[in-house]
## 1
Amino acid sequence: MSDLRIRPAAAADIDTVLAFWRVAAEGTSISDDRDGVARLVARDPEALLLAERGGELAGTVIAGFDGWRCHLYRLAVHPGHRRQGVGGALLAAAEERFVALGGRRADAMVLDRNELGRHAWRAADYGPQEQWTRWVKPLPADAAGATAPTLTSGAVGSPAQEG
């Protein structure tokens, strides 16, 4: 495994990553498009980690930290590189990132039907947290490009706005 290199993705990697996920990832995500990955790389350039072996993309993981929680997404290893330590190396790099940022606990999104993935996460000492259920709401397409509102003293929910 000494020839394995882990590095953050760059904008030039986006098309390669998207093609890789079609082969190596379980299922697709609403954000599996050029704009979605570009936003991720621009917003947090160290979040999307790539594992390369022999100049070839062998695995990915998104290690997102929002300042409160550490989230892991899109852990994917190419079928030709599985069971060779790629996933473990990616998770170790993600966890190092989280610790350096002050994170306290990492969570992972794992499809219930993804038995191979569930086995890999268990092997890395992750476990399901049965008391939680993920709740989601798709946002309108134009919301992706919108900017967040600036909070001021008259923000929604403040005493000045209630009544």
## 2
Amino acid sequence: MTDLERAVWSALGAVSWEPDQQTTARTCAEIAVTMYGGHTRDQGTPYIEHPMAVVVILREELGVVCPTALMTGLLHDMLEINPGARDLIGLRLGVKFANRLADITPDHRLEQRAKGPGDRQAWREKTAALEPVPLLIRLADRIHNARDLANSPDLARRARFLDDLAVFYLPLAEARRATSPQLAMAYRVLRREYDNHQEEGHHGADRVLHGTDGQDRRQGLPPNDPQRHG
């Protein structure tokens, strides 16, 4: 393995896995390094740093131990940045694995077309219908994106991201938190990251306010409900 593949292996925690799981992990690491390679985030950082961080969040903060879930987390953005990789992943990791990735990828990306009217709502509906484990991966993705948001030079992207947290992801995470201890933890961590942004004022004065100084736009709870701050 290359040094980067070893770093991916370490992020997965694969040293303690069964031999057949380790074999699959090596394949995942190779695919991740190859297919994420050459791509950067809008922050200018190598793209692979993001899925590696998502895996660490899943393992160390959300308590995920399932190797399949962690490997799916590693490749969770693969079909978004490279839809053509689906066939390769199907060949090397199996059709079921490729389908898991498709389940957590926006349809317009899978169809290799520009985002159009209705796609945002379609993605929200697709996300809301996810089973607990793939939803957990999407929430871990949101957690890392929230932590990395300050490094984005795109102020409009920051505003959209925080708005999506407020009106969709946080209500969804809150509604599903009783499903599993991992989802309950994901809600708490994501909520904390959101509140940190509110306190720091990264969103600007016209965005959602923390506390009772302004209206909280998350659906389902009144502005002063104590659940908003618990």
